[in-house]
Amino acid sequence: MGELVDFFIRSRNFILFVLLEVLCFYFIINTSNYWSATFFNTSNRYAAQVLAWSNAANQYASLRQVNADLALENQQLNARLTKLLQSKPAAPKEYQADSAFADRFKFVVAKVVNNTTQFANNYITIDKGTDDGIRPGMGVISPTGVVGKVKVCNQHFSVITSILHSEFLVSSKLVKAGEIGSAKWDGVDPHLIKLDAIPRYKPVSKGDSVVTSEFNSTFPPGILVGRVRSVGVQPNQTFHDLTLNLATNFSNLSFVYVVENRLQAEQDQLEKQVENEK
């Protein structure tokens, strides 16, 4: 307390000067219309700027929660859309999928905590594991398209084999042509992927959509893989040389959806039984 008193005593001349300046400023503003209006306009302008900065800071601070809420909402919409598509498959009118088939895909939202794109074989780490029902072999998608497949898990984390992996194949279908091929990354550009085994006689155009086909048990059919970027012909081959723009942008991947096919084990068991009997 004594030090504070000493400070005021030492600085009494400066403090008196500041108080007199404030008093003069007050009288100038209150006795002159011009200076009063100028002060009012200037103070309002700076107050508005500070308020704008404050609002921007608050909005930025809440972006994490906003993104999490949007990811949860997308999870629910994906589940509803997939159920609707599964209940109305492209089949004869007399065919009706049962409820178990329509409900076979379940989605779990997860946050990406690590992601690589610069290697020949890339992996992604998410913050969900076996405690959340995740297990190896499950497919992973983003809000825009295919991401990869779960490789290993522990209680709280999972590592995903990215579609940007030299050995990762996705059974894919050209929407317009109805032709099925395999999408595979060539290890060059993380924004592009190749689509193989599409016959040359099939009409393909730039911009055509490529989605997951019905012939895999990992992903629901109709998930976007990419769109045709260029159309060529493989030398001495009867297939198109197709390059796609990947639907998923791996450079800013924040949230993903792990896809559980509830009937996959049943399907795999039956197919394995048939293979063993051959």
From TrEMBL:
GO BP terms: namely:
regulation of cell shape
> Which parts of the chain are coiled coil?
60-87
Question: Which residue ranges traverse the bilayer?
Answer: 12-29
Task: Note the superkingdom of the native organism.
Answer: Bacteria
Output a single Gene Ontology CC term carried by this record.
plasma membrane
Q: Which InterPro entries match?
A: Cell/Rod_1, Cell/Rod_MreC_2, MreC, MreC_beta-barrel_core
Chain ranges of the Rod shape-determining protein MreC beta-barrel core domain: 112-260
**One Pfam family per UniProt:** MreC
Swiss-Prot/TrEMBL keywords: Cell shape, Coiled coil, Membrane, Transmembrane, Transmembrane helix
Which family is this protein grouped under?
Answer: Belongs to the MreC family.
Write down what this protein is called: Cell shape-determining protein MreC
Instruction: Tell me which species this is from.
Output: Spirosoma telluris
